[in-house]
Every structure is written in C-alpha cells, then in structure tokens.
C-alpha cells in the first residue's frame, strides 16, 4: 500500500469512526462517509469491500481506543494490583463521563443493540465485550478472588449499567457503580475466608 493509499484509508476510517461513534451504524451511509472523507466511493470499497467491513474496522479501532487505551491503560495507570485496577475502572469511567467525550459510551453495546447478536457485526461486538470481561477476569485472578469468571461477569454488568446511566444523564453513575463494586469485592473476599 502506498503512502497515499494508506492516507486515504485512514481518512475513511477516521471519518467512519467519528460518524459511527456519534450516530450509530444504520444512520450513517457510505455516501456520507465518502463525502466527508474526501474520497470517491471506489476508494472506500478498495479498502473496505462492504459497509460491514468498514464497521468491523471501526470496532477494531474502538477496542484499541476504548478497551486497551482508556479502560486497561487507564486502570493500570491508577492502580498496581488486580483488585485496585478493578475499582479503578470506575474512576476511569467517571473521568470519561465528566469529560463528555465519545469514549464515555460503549460502541460495542450500541452496535450490538442496533444490529443484533445474529448479525456478523453484532457477533464481533459480542467478542469485543468478552475481551472486556477477560480483562476483568485476569485482574480478579491476579487478586486471587475465588470466582474470577463470575466476578468478571458481575463487574461487567456494573460497568455496562454505569454507561447506560451516564447516557441517561447521570454523570455520577460510575461513582454509584463503584460503591456497588466495593460491596461485590467484599462478598468475594468473604467467600475466600
């Protein structure tokens, strides 16, 4: 791929990322992406043979920016232990909610609800959501909690609930979820005794 081709691909993906993050998948057409990216439709289809392929690339970038850079790196930057990282997730979310960035929402949830779990894009979202749970499971294992998989599932429910709460306008949702998460950790510690 030439530098020019790579630049065109990046413009398309950046444009699609911004549009899909804000408005969803179905509300954004290929023609709008092409127009805003300043490319012709053939260029888009050379890099992304279908809209679904473009959406899959958007989701992959979202995993990098949201799961890896915001959630994982953010929690690791705030805490040195697995248990501390689990709790720090809510501090990261609180910061994102109050900053009002597009990272304050979870595109995997939005796209899954929009497209459905049976759609290939929805299936990709299910996989990306499992990656988030795997991160929580790893931290729970590091903390030597008795049921890492169960805790990760419950933790993810609290995270998703906080995201929905913030979308409803409750900017304190992550702080409320953190209080519940602390109770959940206490229950897990009690199982180990």
- What structural class results from the helix and strand content? mainly alpha
Helix content: over 70%
> What is the overall silhouette?
elongated
Number of domains: 2
CATH class of the largest domain: Mainly Alpha
Q: Tell me the major beta sheet.
A: none
- If you average the pLDDT, what whole number results? 95
According to CATH, what is the topology of the largest domain?
Answer: Tetracycline Repressor, domain 2
**Tally of DSSP β-strands:** 0
Question: Regions with pLDDT < 50 over 5+ consecutive residues?
Answer: none
CATH architecture of the largest domain: Orthogonal Bundle
Query: CATH-wise, what's the superfamily of the largest domain?
Result: Tetracycline Repressor, domain 2
- H/E element sequence: HHHHHHHHH
Q: Can you walk through the features of this model?
A:
- By secondary structure, the protein is mostly helical.
- The protein folds into 2 domains: 49 residues, Orthogonal Bundle (Arc Repressor Mutant, subunit A); 142 residues, Orthogonal Bundle (Tetracycline Repressor, domain 2), CATH 1.10.357.10.
- 80% of the residues lie in helices and 0% in strands.
- The protein has 9 helices and no strands.
- Helix 5 runs parallel beside helix 8 and helix 8 packs antiparallel against helix 9.
- The radius of gyration is 18 Å and the shape is elongated.
- The relative contact order is 0.11.
């Amino acid at each position: 791929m030439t530098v020019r081709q790579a630049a065109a691909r990046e413009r398309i993906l950046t444009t699609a990322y911004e549009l899909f993050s804000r408005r969803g998948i179905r509300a954004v057409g290929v023609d709008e992406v092409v127009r805003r990216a300043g490319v012709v439709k053939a260029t888009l289809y050379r890099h992304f043979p279908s809209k679904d392929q473009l959406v899959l690339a958007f989701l992959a970038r979202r995993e990098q920016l949201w799961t890896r850079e915001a959630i994982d790196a953010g929690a690791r930057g705030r805490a040195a232990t697995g248990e501390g990282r689990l709790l720090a997730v809510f501090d990261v979310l609180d910061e994102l909610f109050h900053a009002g960035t597009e990272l304050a929402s979870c595109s995997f949830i939005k796209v899954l609800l929009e497209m459905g779990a049976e759609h290939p894009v929805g299936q990709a979202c299910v996989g990306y959501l499992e990656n988030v749970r795997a991160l929580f499971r790893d931290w729970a294992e590091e903390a030597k909690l008795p049921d890492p998989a169960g805790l990760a599932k419950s933790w993810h429910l609290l995270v998703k609930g906080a995201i929905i709460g913030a979308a409803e306008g409750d900017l304190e949702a992550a702080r409320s979820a953190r209080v519940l998460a602390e109770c959940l950790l206490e229950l897990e510690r009690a199982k180990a005794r």
